[in-house]
Amino acid sequence: RSKDEGKDRWSYFTSDMKIDSDEEARLEQELRHALRRDEFFLVFQPQVDNRTQQVTGVEALVRWQHPTRGVLAPGAFLDVMEKTSLAVPLGQIVLDKAIAAAGKWKKAGLHFGRMAVNLSPSHLPSGTLLQDFLNAMTKYDVGPELLTAEVLESVFLDTERNHNWHVLEELYDRGIHIELDDFGTGYASLSHVADLPINGLKIDRSFTAQILTDNKKEIVVNHLIHLARALNINVVCEGVETETQFERLRMMGNFSVQGYLIARPMTFDQMTTWLDASPNDLTYFI
Ligand code: C2E
Ligand code: MG
Ligand code: MG
Ligand code: MG
């Protein structure tokens, strides 16, 4: 390996970093404005029981109504939010809006199972999370039995582990469900899962996408589902896009599914209509 090669790579890397950090600084500024101007809103995606088709939950997913670029998904801005101090205020807004929506459906007598909110990894150690939940729950008259917090496996494993663990246990003890998101992409093993204060796990859509083509993935998913059941842990299978995937999963047992096959994420009004139509049999989406 020549010295020149190393040098070239390094200078390329630094100039690249510079562009990135300029862009990031600009985005960070825009995001600050966005928080002040209330440009964030939620879309909702249902989770349904794969036998009865009953709605078991609705996941709230954040979107940014950008002034010039249209509606942006979290992939376009969440990383920068996490790197700065903005993830906590965004998390507070998301909690408030999600629990407000849950309150409206509750008042309207619409069954939606639980409202599932994605927690930012930085919101957990912030010291405000529990109070943020309680404030919104009081404000919109929503009890813990209507709420789920979705967290990444990593929140139990990082340096804040002890504190995060404590905060999640507080939510758990109050009856808010805790679910491990994107299960299978991180480090958690099922033996570890048995000791966590969690009610469920969401099998990542990268598994769902491969069950039909990769026999080993299918075996892993099948065992995850059976072990979770044995441990009395709920399962949501993410990213179900086709009838064939749905049918294959159905052969593995009775659990919840979420994905484009059932419904794409929708606006509050669309979700209200969807819940109101309250499908009674599987032919509704198959
Ligand atoms: P996630 O929590 O795993 O959410 C599922 C993602 O998969 C969503 O993307 C959803 O739109 C997408 N999806 C659902 N069904 C299907 C399907 O059948 N096929 C495919 N290809 N995709 C499907 P989205 O909304 O872009 O969110 C991406 C990630 O951003 C989420 O992954 C979550 O980790 C994070 N996120 C979303 N909303 C929030 C939020 O309010 N707060 C925080 N902290 N993170 C959020
Ligand atoms: Mg999620
Ligand atoms: Mg997920
Ligand atoms: Mg995911």
UniProtKB/TrEMBL annotation:
Residues 24-279 form the EAL domain. This is PAS domain S-box-containing protein/diguanylate cyclase (GGDEF) domain-containing protein. It comes from Roseibium suaedae. The chain holds residues 787 to 1072 of 1072 of the full protein.
